[in-house]
Design goal:
globular, 183 residues, Rossmann fold, alpha/beta, binds adenosine monophosphate
C-alpha cells in the first residue's frame, strides 16, 4: 500500500473522516493542518487568536505558518503520512515539493475527493463547526475554487492524481480509496 499520501478536495468532501480512518488502519501519521490550527486556537495563545479570526472568515492562514507546522511534523516523522487540508494553494504545493526533496521523501499518491456543491453545503451545515455557517461555507468553497483547484492539474501532471466519487457511506468511500492505493 502507498505510504505517503495527500488528500485533496473541497471542504465537506469528507477528507478528514477518510484520512483519520485510513491513517488509523495503516499506522500513518494523519497530518491535518485544520486540526492543528484549531488546536492552536484552543490553546488560547496570541497566535491562536489571530488564527481564529482568519478561520472564522473562511480565509486561508499564512503559508509561512502552515509550512512551519508541516515541516516540524514531517521532520520528526520518517514513516508514512497522510496530508489532509495541505497544501491549499500552489505556493504551498511548491514549498512542500522542496521540503520533501530536502527530506528525501516523495508523495506516492494524491486522492482527489469529488462531490457536488449541493451535497457539500448540506454536509457542512450538518456538521456545526464554528466556521460552518452558510455565508462562510460559500466563501470557503470560493477560496477552494480559486486557490486550491490549480493543484489538481499540478498533481495530474506529476502523474500522482486519482479521483474518487465522495458520495455514499463512509465505508463505501473508504473502500474506493483503498482500492486506489493498493499497488
Ligand atoms: P479544514 O479543517 O481543513 O477545513 O481547515 C479549516 C480552516 O483552517 C480553513 O478554512 C483555513 O482557514 C485554515 N487552514 C487549514 N489548512 C490550511 C492551509 N493548508 N493553509 C491555510 N489555511 C489553512
Amino acid at each position: 500500500m502507498k505510504q505517503r499520501l495527500l488528500f485533496l478536495g473541497p471542504p465537506g468532501a469528507g477528507k478528514g473522516t477518510q484520512a483519520q480512518r485510513l491513517a488509523a488502519s495503516q499506522g500513518l501519521l494523519h497530518l491535518s493542518t485544520g486540526d492543528l490550527l484549531r488546536a492552536e486556537v484552543q490553546a488560547g495563545s496570541e497566535l491562536g487568536r489571530q488564527v481564529e479570526a482568519v478561520i472564522a472568515r473562511g480565509e486561508l492562514v499564512s503559508d509561512d505558518l502552515v509550512l512551519a507546522i508541516v515541516r516540524s511534523r514531517l521532520e520528526q516523522h520518517g514513516q508514512g503520512w497522510l496530508l489532509d487540508g495541505f497544501p491549499r494553494n500552489l505556493a504551498q504545493a511548491e514549498a512542500l515539493d522542496r521540503l520533501l526533496a530536502e527530506l528525501d521523501q516523495r508523495i506516492e499518491r494524491v486522492v482527489l475527493m469529488e462531490l457536488d456543491d449541493g451535497l457539500l453545503i448540506q454536509r457542512l451545515l450538518g456538521r456545526g463547526r464554528a466556521d460552518d455557517n452558510e455565508q462562510v461555507i460559500r466563501h470557503r468553497l470560493e477560496v477552494y475554487r480559486q486557490q486550491t483547484t490549480p493543484l489538481i492539474e499540478h498533481y495530474r501532471q506529476l502523474g500522482l492524481l486519482e479521483a474518487v466519487e465522495a458520495a455514499g457511506s463512509v465505508e463505501a468511500i473508504g473502500e474506493r480509496i483503498s482500492a486506489l492505493l493498493a499497488d
